[in-house]
Amino acid sequence: MWKKTRWTAALSAAALSLGGCYVLPVAPDGTVYVYPPSVAPTYPPPPPTGPMPTQLAARLYPANEIAMQTGMVAGTVTNMMTGKGRFQLNYKGELLAGEATRVDGDSRRGVASAYGQSGTFMSCEYQMNTPTQGAGTCAFSNGARYQVHIGG
Which of 62, 70, 69, 65 is closest to 90 using CA atoms? Predict the structure, then answer.
C-alpha cells in the first residue's frame, strides 16, 4: 500500500508542477501572439539574402543565309548569379532548352547549349559586359548561325 501511495504522490507532484507552465509563441519583435493563432498578427518572411536569379532576354539575329530563312529568334536566359543559367528559345516551332555556364578562369566568358525534342540543337559562345548584358554567336544543327544579344 505504501508503494502505491508514494507512486500516486509522485505523479500528482509532477502533474501539479507542470500544470502552471504555458508555452507562448513570441513574434520577432517580442510581442506574444494572441490565442487562438488565427487572430495573431502575421509577419512577412525575412527578405532573401544574396543575389537573386534574373531573367534576361536573348535575341538572335541571322548571320548567314540559312538563318535568314527563319529571321530573328527570341528566347530567355535566366542568370542564376552563380556562374550558371538556364537558356530556352522557340526555333521553328520547337522548344529548345539548355544551360549556360561561365568558362573557368574568366567570369565574363561562357558557353550555352540547348536541345529540342525533335533533335535540333544549338551551341553558343558569349561574353558578358555586366551581369545582365552580353553578346556572342550561336550555331544550330542545321547550319544556321546567329549573333546573340543578351539583356537590355
Answer: 70
Three-state SS letters, 15-35: HHHHHCCCCCCECCCCCECCC
Q: Taking the alpha carbons of 92, 98, 101, 103 in that order, is the dihedral positive or negative?
A: negative
Name residue 123's amino acid. S
The CATH architecture of the domain made up of 54-151 is Beta Barrel (2.40)
Q: For the chain, give every domain's residue range.
A: 54-151
Residue whose grid cell is 578562369: 105
For strands 121-130 and 109-115, give the pairing: antiparallel
Percent of the chain with pLDDT over 70: 72
Nearest to 54 by CA among 128, 104, 119: 128
pLDDT at 90: 95
